[in-house]
Amino acid sequence: MDKKILIAYYSLEGNTRRTAKAIQNITGGDIFEIELEKPYGMASAFTLGVVHSRRGNGPPLKKRAENLDDYDTVFVGGPVWAYTLTSPIVSFFKAHDLSNKTVIPFCTHDGAAGKYFEKVVENCPNADLSKSREFFKVKLKNDDELTQEVNDWISAVL
After folding, report:
1. What residues pair up with 104 in beta bridges, in sequence order?
2. Would strands 5-9 and 73-81 be described as parallel, antiparallel, or unpaired?
3. What is the pLDDT of residue 127?
4. Fewer CB within 10 Å, N- or C-terminus of the chain?
């Protein structure tokens, strides 16, 4: 692929990580894990993390993505918490200028995306929702199934 691609993701339970790595394997893009200075544990993710998500707060990031100017396309993904965008993704959008990029959002969940993509646009107005994708129950898919699903999506959007 001709475009330089970055896949930025936040994952708590590993589902979004698996999806991001499948995107990387198919596109050859670089990968960046969004990490917090004070990471959420499972309990705090479902208490403090959900409160942050609902309020649109973004906790401090451990590091920023480097050389963002080198990328044309940025995939950004995370899990859905309380039917909305996770706070680490909000932090990523606030810390990075993506105004001259093609931003392709994706999410993972076991129920519904809710307002995830609506909140993506609030935090990153140039996100291309026509290319967005939600991945349902990733933890129940084997690697071949997930790779095929990601490949079908990538073939349609790039």
Report:
1. 75
2. parallel
3. 87
4. N
d(CA 69, CA 129): 22
For the chain, what is the mean pLDDT?
92
Burial track 25-60 (b if 16+ CB lie within 10 A, e otherwise):
ebbebbbbbbebeeebeeeebeebbbebbeeeebbe
Task: Write down the domain spans for the chain.
Answer: 5-149
- Select from 3.30.2000.10, 3.40.50.360, 3.30.720.120, 2.40.50.140 the CATH code of 5-149: 3.40.50.360
E strands present in 46-100: 73-81, 84-85
pLDDT digits (tens, 9 = 90+) for 118-137: 999 999 988 888 899 999 99
Q: What share of the chain is helix, strand, coil (3-state, %, to 5)?
A: 45, 20, 35
